[in-house]
Amino acid sequence: MSKITVGVCSSSxxxxxxxxxxxxxxxxxxxxxxxxxxxxxxQNYSIPILDSYLSSSIGIKNALEEYDxxxxxxxxxxxxxxxxxxxxDIESPVILTVHDLIPLVSEYDNPILKAYARIYSRELNNAxxxxxxxxxxxxxxxxxxxxxxxxxxxxxxxxxxxxxxGSITEPRDSPETxxxxxxxxxxxKNISTIIEAMKWVPEPINLVLVGGSDVYTSQRVxxxxxxxxxxxxxxxxxxxxxxxxxxxxxxxxxxxxPSNYEGFGRPPLEAMLNDTPVIATxxxxxxxxxxxxxVFCDPSNPSDWANSIKEIYNNDNLKRDLVKKGQERIKxxxxxxxxxxxxxxxxxxxxxxxxxxx
Length: 358
Prior knowledge:
Layout: E1 4-9, H1 16-29, E2 35-40, H2 52-67, E3 73-76, E4 94-98, H3 102-105, H4 111-126, E5 129-132, H5 135-144, E6 152-154, E7 177-182, H6 191-197, E8 205-210, H7 215-227, E9 234-238, H8 242-251, E10 254-257, H9 266-273, E11 278-281, H10 286-290, E12 295-297, H11 302-314, H12 316-329, H13 335-351
Parallel strand pairs: 1-2, 1-3, 3-4, 4-5, 5-6, 7-8, 7-10, 8-9, 10-11, 11-12
Domain Glycosyl transferase family: 172-329
Pfam families: Glyco_transf_4, Glycos_transf_1
Protein name: Glycosyl transferase group 1
């Protein structure tokens, strides 16, 4: 078989997780001798009444039309660009990476977002193939769209270890004891549960929240902390650079991940990479990804989280066991393996003339 030309479409307005996925995957796929990778730059549009992803999809639609017939396959690295693309009008096969189904499983009052969800579902059905980042996400796709099970492949992404090179290894001490959360502060991340849990956690332990938030979200976090009497023990850092993040991971008592919905869950694996015990939500894709290498808690039960935090605080053997299991668990995920499985899908799509849904 001659080289396969793959056009990879993404947008600079994507979130950090999507941008990381795109960069790591394309860097690994580019090394494959039988793939000619074309990174397609897209123009970003800012349309106030539309969300950022729907605005981005307009620029990607224009790129697809420009490069159609110039590539063998298009690969859209996020499902969030699907709405408004008109995939059925594209001659070249389109593979779509689905990270989660939030637009389809969420309830909307806004009529524009309701329309967005309907278009989103239609375009998922029109994709030539769906690449899901977890088995949970695959089942979500099958349950919420008309896409058949045979049209969805599960390919696990990974995390980057390079950004932690040169970070601290010794000593692992800190002027204060804290548990750590890294990620978005949006409501689905369920930060309020951890904040409420803090009122039952021994007072030497603080909660450090790393990640971006707007003024409203930051104030909401402060309000939850004030209402639960833990204002002085909840620290918001905003975004931090990679060396600082590595330091925070490695010096933390434990990493907490209380999210209500995840299609994969990268931060807990980053914590494991940095030898930090993980306490994670027992719902959606997270147990699938972390296996037996974490303590799992009900995301709706703050006392459950408080008890797990106290247990790790008081039990050095448990901490060592979780660190050891975490070191083994992260070996299941590599970008090389992700690229190999993705390239195999590219080849199968080219060989299958009837790859589009009927």
